[in-house]
Specification:
OB fold (Dihydrolipoamide Acetyltransferase, E2P), BirA Bifunctional Protein, domain 2, 2 domains, 13 helices, 31% helix, elongated, binds adenosine-5'-triphosphate, binds magnesium ion
Length: 431
C-alpha cells in the first residue's frame, strides 16, 4: 500500500493509501465516525462506518482523542464538500499513542495560556496558516533580490559595536570582552556593497526595547538590501517594487489561507499597486498638527501618529526626509536643508505602521567622522567603517524591512507575537 501525505492525496483517488498523522478532531453520529486527521501538510476527513469497517476497527477509532498519533489506511475519494476536497473511507487503523487530555481544546483559551503552550499551539489551523505564509514570504523576499542580481552576504550576529548607540543592545560576554547581539547588519552591508555592488542580508536581529507594543518583538528577522551608487530616490523605487512583488505573490499563493483561515479582507492587499504616495516628514508633521495627536514637530512618529497618517492613504506610503536629530549618525544630509536627512520610512495602511526604514548613507569621510563624534560613538570601533570612505568612497543607500511586521500586515493580524514561531517579548522567553 502506498504511503501518502494529505497534500498529495488527490493523486491516489480510488486507491487505498496509508496516512500518518494526528487526530485534529473527532465526532460521531451514531454509527459513523468522522475523524479529521492532520499530517502537517493538510487535513483530511476520515470516515469510519461501523457496518463496513467492523466492530473492532470502529471501537479502536472511537477511543481516539484529540492529537493522538495514528497510522490510518483507507480509500481516497473525491468530495467537493470536504475540507481539502478529498475523504478517506477508513479500512484500517494503528494507534501510535492515545493523547490524553490535550491542553488546547476547541474552546476559548486566554492568550497567556496559548503562549505558554506555543510548542503545541503551532498545530492549530490559524497558527499553521500564519507560519506557512511566513515561509512563503521568506522565499518571495529572497527571490525578489536573487532575481535582480543581488548577492546574499551574511552579516555577523555577535558585534563589537552598535549602529545607533548601545541603549537597545543585548550585551554578552565574549571571552572576557564585551560583545553585542546585532540590531542591524547595515554597517557590514555597506562594506559588502563595495565588494558586490548589490547585496542583502536576512537574519535575526535583537533589540532590548522595553516597549511593550503590538508591533515590537525583542528578536525579529530583518532583510536589508544595500546598493552601491543608489541615491534616495533609487532606494525608494526599490522598496516600492519590492513590496508590490512580495504582497502580490503572497496573495497569489495564499489566497485561500488568507480568506478561509485568517479571514483577511483582501481588498486592501489588492490595492498594493504602484505608485505609492511619497510625502515629506514636514508635510506629515503638518497633517498630524491638525489632528492633535500630541505629536511634536521634530520628534519621531509614535504608533498613534503612524495610524493617523495611514488613514489618509489606501496603500503603503513613503515618508522621507526626517530630521537629522532623530536619525542615526550615518544618514546623508539633505542638500536642500542640512537639518534634514535623505532618509525614508514606508508605512503600511490599516494601522500596521512602519515596515521599512532606510535611506542614503554619508559617503564623505570628514562629515562621517564628525557625526561619529557628535553621536558620542567611539571612533576607534568605527575605523573599519570609515575605511569604506577612505578607499573608493561611493554614494549608496539601503533599507531594512521587518519580516514579522510585514507578515502581520499581509495576514491582517493585530499582534506581532503570532508571526514568529517562538516569540521573544518583554515578558516572555519561553518556550
Ligand atoms: P520603530 O520606530 O517602529 O520601533 P525602528 O525605526 O526602530 O522601528 P528600524 O531600525 O528602522 O526600526 O528597523 C527597520 C525595520 O525593522 C522597521 O521598519 C520594522 O519593520 C522592523 N522592526 C524594527 N524594530 C522592530 C521590533 N522591535 N520588532 C519587530 N520589527 C521591528
Ligand atoms: Mg525606522
Amino acid at each position: 500500500m502506498r504511503t501518502a501525505e494529505v497534500a498529495g492525496v488527490g493523486e491516489f483517488c480510488g486507491q487505498e493509501v496509508l496516512l500518518k498523522g494526528w487526530v485534529y478532531n473527532i465526532r460521531s453520529s451514531g454509527k459513523i465516525l468522522f475523524i479529521l486527521v492532520r499530517d502537517g501538510t493538510g487535513t483530511i476527513q476520515c470516515i469510519v462506518e461501523k457496518a463496513s469497517a467492523g466492530g473492532e476497527l470502529f471501537d479502536a477509532a472511537s477511543g481516539l482523542q484529540q492529537e493522538s498519533s495514528i497510522e490510518i489506511r483507507g480509500t481516497v475519494s473525491e468530495d467537493s464538500r470536504a475540507p481539502g476536497g478529498y475523504e478517506l473511507q477508513v479500512t484500517g487503523l494503528d494507534v501510535i499513542q492515545i493523547a490524553e487530555d490535550y491542553p488546547i481544546t476547541p474552546k476559548e483559551h486566554g492568550m497567556n495560556f496559548l503562549m505558554d503552550h506555543r510548542h503545541l499551539w503551532l498545530r492549530s489551523s490559524r497558527q499553521h496558516a500564519i507560519l506557512k505564509i511566513r515561509a512563503g514570504l521568506i522565499r518571495f523576499i529572497r527571490e525578489f533580490f536573487d532575481n535582480r542580481g543581488f548577492i546574499c552576504v551574511d552579516t555577523p550576529i555577535f558585534t563589537p559595536s552598535a549602529c545607533e548607540g548601545t541603549t537597545t543592545l543585548f550585551e554578552t560576554d565574549y571571552f572576557g570582552d564585551k560583545a553585542y547581539l546585532t540590531q542591524s547588519g547595515q554597517l557590514y552591508n555597506e562594506a559588502n556593497a563595495a565588494a558586490f555592488r548589490k547585496v542583502y542580508c536576512f537574519g535575526p536581529t535583537f533589540r532590548a526595547e522595553k516597549s511593550k507594543t503590538r508591533r515590537h518583538l525583542i528578536e525579529f528577522w530583518m532583510v536589508e538590501p544595500e546598493v552601491a551608487f543608489a541615491e534616495l530616490d533609487d532606494i525608494i523605487q526599490l522598496g516600492e517594487d519590492f513590496i508590490v512583488e512580495i504582497v502580490g505573490r503572497s496573495l497569489e499563493s495564499y489566497r485561500d489561507l488568507l480568506t478561509d483561515v485568517l479571514e483577511r479582507d483582501l481588498a486592501p492587499l489588492e490595492r498594493v499597486q504602484p505608485p505609492f504616495p511619497r510625502i515629506s516628514y514636514n508635510d506629515a508633521a503638518d497633517i498630524l498638527k491638525k489632528r492633535e495627536t500630541g505629536f511634536v514637530h521634530g520628534g519621531d512618529f509614535g504608533g498613534t501618529d503612524e495610524t493617523v497618517l495611514s488613514e489618509g492613504y489606501d496603500r503603503p506610503f513613503f515618508v522621507h526626509r526626517f530630521p537629522a536629530a532623530i536619525k542615526a549618525f550615518y544618514m546623508q544630509p539633505d542638500p536642500e536643508d542640512e537639518s534634514l536627512t535623505l532618509s525614508v520610512d514606508l508605512l503600511a495602511p490599516e494601522g500596521y505602521g512602519e515596515i521599512i526604514g532606510g535611506g542614503q548613507r554619508i559617503h564623505d569621510l570628514e562629515l562621517l567622522k564628525r557625526r561619529v563624534g557628535e553621536h558620542g560613538l567611539p571612533e576607534k570601533a568605527f575605523e573599519w567603517y570609515l575605511d569604506l570612505r577612505r578607499y573608493g568612497t561611493f554614494p549608496h543607500s539601503g533599507f531594512g524591512l521587518g519580516l514579522e511586521r510585514t507578515l502581520a500586515y499581509i495576514c491582517g493580524i493585530k499582534h506581532i507575537r503570532e508571526t514568529i514561531p517562538y516569540p521573544r517579548l518583554l515578558n516572555r522567553l519561553s518556550p
